Amino acid sequence: MFSEALQTMVEETRGGAGAVLMGYDGIAIDQFFKPVEDMDLQLVAVEYANILKEIKKTADILESGRMEEVTIKTDRFLVLIRILNDEYFVALTLERDGNFGKARYLLMRESPALKAALD
Amino acid sequence: MFSEALQTMVEETRGGAGAVLMGYDGIAIDQFFKPVEDMDLQLVAVEYANILKEIKKTADILESGRMEEVTIKTDRFLVLIRILNDEYFVALTLERDGNFGKARYLLMRESPALKAALD
Questions:
Q1: Which of B28, B80, B86 lies closest to B53 in space, CA to CA?
Q2: Do residues A71 and B70 lie in contact, with contact meaning Cβ atoms separated by under 8 Å?
Q3: Which residue among A62, A80, A103, B66 is least crowded, i.e. fewest CB within 10 A of its CB?
Q4: Is B36 in CB contact (< 8 Å) with chain A?
Q5: Are the C-beta atoms of A106 and A92 separated by less than 8 Å?
Q6: Model pTM?
Q7: For chain B, which domains are there?
Q8: Which residue of B has its CA nearest to A63?
Q9: Are A22 and A29 within 8 A, CB to CB?
Q10: Searching chain B, which residue's CA lies closest to the CA of residue A58?
């Protein structure tokens, strides 16, 4: 069930490289990755889990609101992250020239089903 | 010179709450903040400097490319961050229902001038 939604997100987004459903502890429930040259996308996701944990802690301390979405753009990749609940998030990675708007839309569209399946 | 560009970004964006030009060490060169209830936006910026440092380190280690832009959406705020160089970034904070696209455009438009003034 999870991997199907993840694969849909990657394949329906131009430039889609991979998607992962992961806990803040860096352990993936499910994932779908296309092979990307010189890049271990799973390792990337694990590292970003650590960063999200920091952001979450910061948002909590500062009472700046519950974290919902984080995007990181580098000169190689776009990473879109959507928070599902207090334990899990879903991250979609695109090539830099991928379709950001479509990726964001698909993440929003698929998140409620992922969330429901987690509960 | 800096504060003028920062003020422009905040005032020309619907929902604009504050902008800051800051080093990764959390020390601001310049800033412009509107008063926001229950929220120390400068403290928020300092905390986010720490997070950026983590993201930068991660991107370097993973060779996932040079970090350019980070956005964080909570249920209260939108924070858009644009990396200027290895030492400084500019962060623009909006109310949650602010104009994200305009904010992103203004950050892109003003960044080269800020960058040039820093060098």
A1: B86
A2: yes
A3: B66
A4: no
A5: yes
A6: 0.84
A7: 2-118 (3.30.450.30)
A8: B39
A9: yes
A10: B47
pLDDT digits (tens, 9 = 90+) for B48-59: 777 777 777 776
Structure tokens at A31: 């994932």
Beta strands in B1-58 (DSSP E): 16-23, 28-33
- The whole-angstrom distance between residue A67's C-alpha and the CA centroid of its chain comes to 13
- Select from B114, B115, B119, B109 the least CA-distant residue to B13: B109
pLDDT tens digits along B90-99: 999 999 899 9
Q: Could you report the predicted ipTM of this complex, rounded to two decimals?
A: 0.80
Residue A61 near chain B (CB below 8 Å): yes
Residue with tokens 């996701």: A45
CA-based nearest distance A12→chain B, Å: 23
CA A75 to chain CA centroid, Å, is: 18
Give CA B91 to chain center in angstroms: 1
Alpha carbons within 13 A on the beta-carbon side of A32: 17
Say if the Cβ atoms of A54 and B58 lie within 8 Å: no
How far apart are alpha carbons A76 and A69 in whole angstroms? 20
Q: Give me B22's structure tokens.
A: 């800051």
